[in-house]
């Protein structure tokens, strides 16, 4: 059983940046690919980006347009999401999730259901 805890959310002005963290416990962290998702009020959950077990491969949602960066530090059981040039459309609850994928390229987890989810952290972008 893997537990995930997100942090770093808050309110930021449009055009600003924010870094989210996702700390994992309860499993072998390097056996899991980690993804970031978001859900805005009244909208479906949306894929942001994901990183493979080693950090060596990445995959992003087409809409991110290089504004979002994901990376991981396995020694800290932590995955990060750096967000820049934020707009009000980025306001959402951001979740990290883990999918069992040891030694797999990130493309191998595209479309798979994630096994574990965090509770989410709210990001609000003000005008």
Walkthrough of the structure:
The chain has strands spanning 3-7, 10-13, 18-25, 32-39, 46-51, 58-60, 68-73, 78-83, 92-100, 116-117, 121-126. The protein has 127 residues and is mainly β. The chain is globular.
Share in β-strands: over 45%
Low-confidence stretches: none
Question: Which whole number gives the mean pLDDT?
Answer: 96
SS element count, helices: 0
N- and C-termini, Cα separation: 40 Å
What is the helical fraction, as a range of percent? Answer: under 10%
The secondary-structure class comes to: mainly beta
β-strand number: 11
Globular, elongated, flat, extended or rod-shaped: what is the shape?
globular
Largest sheet: 7 strands, mixed
Order of helices and strands: EEEEEEEEEEE
What does the radius of gyration come to? 14 Å
Helix and strand topology:
Blueprint lengths: L2 E5 L2 E4 L4 E8 L6 E8 L6 E6 L6 E3 L7 E6 L4 E6 L8 E9 L15 E2 L3 E6 L1
Parallel strand pairs: 2-11
Antiparallel strand pairs: 1-3, 3-8, 4-5, 4-9, 5-6, 7-8, 9-10, 9-11
């Amino acid at each position: 059983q893997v537990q995930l805890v997100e942090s770093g959310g808050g309110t930021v002005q449009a055009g600003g940046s924010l870094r989210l963290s996702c700390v994992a416990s309860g499993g072998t962290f390097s056996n899991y690919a980690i993804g970031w998702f978001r859900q805005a009020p009244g909208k479906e959950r949306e894929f942001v980006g994901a990183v493979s077990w080693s950090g060596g491969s990445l995959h992003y949602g087409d809409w991110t347009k290089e504004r979002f960066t994901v990376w991981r530090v396995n020694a800290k059981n932590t995955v990060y999401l750096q967000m820049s040039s934020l707009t009000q459309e980025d306001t959402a609850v951001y979740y990290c999730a883990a999918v069992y994928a040891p030694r797999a390229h990130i493309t191998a987890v595209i479309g798979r259901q994630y096994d574990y989810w965090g509770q989410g952290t709210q990001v609000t972008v003000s005008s």
